[in-house]
Amino acid sequence: MRVVKRLFDFYLNSSLHVACAVWCLLYITHLTEALPYSKSYGFTVFFGTVVGYNFLKYIVVFLKEKWDLAYYWAILLVSGGAGIALLYFFLDLPHSIALQLVYLGVLLLVYPYLRKYGWLKFGLVVLVVTYVTVYIPYQSVKWLPWDYYISLLQRVLILSSLLIPFEIMDSTTDPQSMNTLPHLLGINATKVLGILLVVPFLLLEFFKAHPCYAVLPVALITVFSIRFTTLKRNPYYTSFWIESIPIVWLFLIWVLQ
Prior knowledge:
Distance between the termini: 37 Å
Oligomer: single chain
Shape: globular
Number of strands: 0
């Protein structure tokens, strides 16, 4: 049982789970909007998420000279392998898309210096994931339909809601100077804000030409996830359960189709 737990922790700590979640958000866009899917871009997003998140999580540890190679060697191995795979698929992308991803990579490099501004950290995560999973996939469409603008706004709303539990649970360790939402509004008001953001996310779906009813259970799951977020929750609550919601969303779409 201890071995299973260690493997599970490694799966989470190496950012493989969050990479699955981001890829699912990308594939949801392709399925619900009937857009052509590029395997090269899909793999670039997956491996880029592994590399990017591991950079953000462990660069501070490395810079503070607390890097224990015996402990982090497996993370380093996964990150290196993901980096090689990322480069392979990245080189197969159209120049215009590759250039946009380079710009996002520059944002990633400056993120550790922006993290002290809580509101900026929050907005940057929402912006980058929305850009990668909605904006870029739609670039294969010559004339942007009304559904594109709806999907773009929906993704911003649902990502903002899904980040609320992380903001709340991190508020015990984030310094007050970061001015995160729980620091500015308080925990209860932050929860209310997160739940309110789910309402337009849900309603906007029915303005699309072909609404996908999977948003109904996804909206409910998100609301309950925010409602039952507390400071005493196990870290797995966010690192596994909340990050699993996009995976559940994609599964529900497959079931309904």
